[in-house]
Description:
This protein has 2 domains: 55-308, 3-Layer(aba) Sandwich (Aspartate Aminotransferase, domain 2); 311-419, Aspartate Aminotransferase, domain 1 (Alpha-Beta Complex), CATH 3.90.1150.10. It is 40% helix and 16% strand. It contains 14 helices and 17 strands. It has a 7-stranded mixed β-sheet with strand order 4-10-9-8-7-5-6, sandwiched between helices. Helix 2 (51-64) packs antiparallel against helix 10 (294-310), helix 4 (108-123) runs parallel beside helix 5 (142-151) and helix 11 (312-331) runs parallel beside helix 14 (402-419). The chain binds ligand 7TS. The site of ligand 7TS has 17 residues, from helix 4.
Amino acid sequence: MITARDARAPEGAGALWDVERIRKDFPALHQQVHGKPLVYLDNAATSQKPQVVIDAITAYYALENSNVHRGVHLLSEQATQAYEGARARVQRFLNAAESREIVFVRGTTEGINLVAQSYGRASVGAGDEIVISAMEHHSNIVPWQMLCAEKGAVLRVVPIDDAGELRLDEYARLLTERTKLVAVAHISNALGTVNPVKGLIELAHARGVPVLVDGAQAAPHLRVDVRDLDCDFYVFSGHKTLGPTGIGVLYGKAGRLERMPPWQGGGDMIASVTFEKTTYNALPYKFEAGTPHIAGVIGLGVALDYLSGLGLERVAAYEQDLLAYGTEALRAVPGLRIIGTAKEKASVLSFVLDGVHAHDVGTILDHAGVAVRAGHHCAMPIMQRFGVPATVRASLAFYNTREELDALVAALHEVRGIFG
Ligand code: 7TS
């Protein structure tokens, strides 16, 4: 049986992009829904899981289940090794300088809330400003609104143009001596726009402003190098990067994390406790109160190694080809308008169909076996910006195929047939 410690990416995941071979690693892809082969195009919501990840989680619970950082017994030592080994895998995945810069959280949402509640509450005051963009997911809007409401600070929003690209002139204008943080998506979940985050960070740093990058949609699709980006914080979710739900990563530069107060109090985050005074643990444990999601962390480590084993550059190249193919094919559907036409895009095809509500489109596609998301994608301000109540979103992964995109387009022609 494969164990949580030795699960690795499959060998030679290869010289050529053998999508059929890769698909074999993902059991969920090989099923029928409504009597049709599943075409899974909802990867921006969550990715499917390769067998190595499922095996690693099963092996942990079957053989090694134990709490971490506290047992003197063998199982606890093994669990601790697997847990900390996964932290080292995440460090490699992001090219972080040190493993103590990797904090395990529940997901992107929790990572952003941690920064808002820790860095934000300690450093943001009345009249200060937080800069976000018009294309953020709600989880990179609401935590900052909550902070601003508490502190009397102001949220500033960088607008986007009709293609769904950031207005860089406006961005530069919004950075002032009052700006305390920039928080921006690497890739938009609703439009697919890839933001020029390296340039955004450079400009912010030139004004002494730290930057948080929401990498929820980027980590599964392109190589992320936090040292090259020079971001202060980077967050992503395990479940979108082939790993389990309930686990995610906050990367923070060690110096910044050191200066931040803890967020949640409890076990593991302390060095010593008396009723008079508690001293806090070192990084990253200061931010990991309570028994963590051990199986999730182990599964995430294996998932990231699998992804790295495929080669993120090759994943990105394959997905770009799919995106171009899908974009062309969708343009041939009468009355279809793509929302989000940025020059730099990744893996998202968001669209509306004249005269048909997105939810109706989604339901008909589902009956054809095609899984997409229909709605506001937790980015209601983007829907308002484009004047639509909702879009249909097909979001791609490296295990999707051109044939699956053909199935999507065929089903859309059916929708056209029904609604005229
Ligand atoms: N930020 C972005 C850019 C996202 O796309 C998402 C999830 C989140 C943050 C929140 O991640 P979580 O794992 O903490 O929930 N996006 C989506 C989506 O597009 N459809 O379902 C979830």
